[in-house]
Amino acid sequence: MEGGIPGTPELALRPMRDVEFAAYLAYFVPDYAAEMATNYGLSAAQALTRASAEVADDLRGGPRTEGEVLLCLVDERDTLLGYLWYRPDIAQRSAFISDFHILPAHQGKGFGKTALGLIEARLAAEGLTEIRLRVAADNVRARHVYETSGFRTTGFNMSKRIGEV
Which segments constitute the N-acetyltransferase domain (predicted)? Predict the structure, then answer.
């Protein structure tokens, strides 16, 4: 197991198992829908419908969907601490993190920064040279973790509903 923060359990990223996929979706789809509702002005029902459809399309093969990598962050006892979903782009030598989540009971303990270090080492070993991601504008905690891990803002996503001023 790989670690990095004194006094914390040793951590590892391992492939998500088929039996863990439903629990992942149970967390991710409503979370993604809530972000869509907040940031895109959708109703809760519209956002849930849209999030469900997008995720079903993106992860149609479950945890072994071609072109997608779904991992679990675990401690030395294989206790689940969080999830990481990314899409490698070999041609661009980069990876895009679609989702990174530390379970609420384990937040604020340095696991996020440690996990980012683990994924960076993993991707470097695969010959990739850049990690990209999107973070919601209102997610201050995540932005702090990313910024203190060396990520920089490269732009802003913007949205406008057609017909509104």
Answer: 11-165
pTM of the model: 0.87
Q: What CATH class is the domain 11-148?
A: alpha beta
SS3 (DSSP) at 142: helix
Q: How far apart are the first and last CA of the chain?
A: 53
CB 33 within 8 A of CB 47: yes
Residues 77-100 have pLDDT tens digits of 999 999 999 999 999 999 999 999
* CA–CA gap between residue 20 and residue 14 (Å, rounded): 12
Sheet hosting strand 130-133, strand order edge to edge: 11-15, 69-75, 80-89, 94-102, 130-133
Ramachandran angles phi, psi of 103, nearest 5°: -60, 145
Write the DSSP assignment of 18-81 as a string of letters.
Answer: HHHHHHHHHHHHHHHHHHHHHHH---HHHHHHHHHHHHHHHTTTGGG-TT-EEEEEEETT--EE
Of 12, 26, 18, the C-alpha closest to 79 is: 12
More confident residue, 57 or 141: 57
